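Hey, I was hoping to borrow your eyes for a little while. There's a protein on my desk that I can't quite get my head around. The fold is given in discrete form, as structure tokens running alongside the sequence. I'd be grateful if you could look everything over and explain what you see. Here's the protein in full, and shout if anything looks odd to you:
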Amino acid sequence: MAITMNKVLGEAFGPTEGAARAVKDVMLVLAGIAVLTIAAKIRVPMWPVPITMQTFAVLTLGAGLGLRLGLISVLAYLALGALGLGVFTGEGTGLAYMAGPTGGYLVGFAFAAAAMGALARRGWDRSVTGMAGAMLVGTAIIYVFGLGWMAHLFLADKGAAWVFQYGMGNFLVGDALKLVLAALVVPGLWKLAR
């Protein structure tokens, strides 16, 4: 019977490297959920979709945690919101809130976090211009899902100009500022980490 050194050491001295990594991953996901929840509460009230720091959090978590953990963090956050926990912006919770005007943006968060993780794996997060490009891609993904859902809900009654204005136009300045902030902060953190 072959006994591995990791098994012997793990039994004698505690968790193995694999278990330690799993604990670290769980802690990073929980931290990601907490960051998203806090970012959702930093808001400028607007109707039908408020301005929040969620997009900044989603995109930087995707870049910082990578595709797997970034996506898991966002999906876990969405699952908690769907279950009725107060993690989303404002008063709404549960599936009814997710079916409202913000629903498309919430779905877009998962795809954007995954894209940011994939781009970070290719090194886009290591320079200001690369991170700015990645943020543009991530933001565009969020808008594709968000505007698509807004059009589904409001296009017939309000028209395309209204959907564009309240689904994207009102957010462009704020998103540009978030893009600049992330493009400056994330590559700087990589330099500090080195």
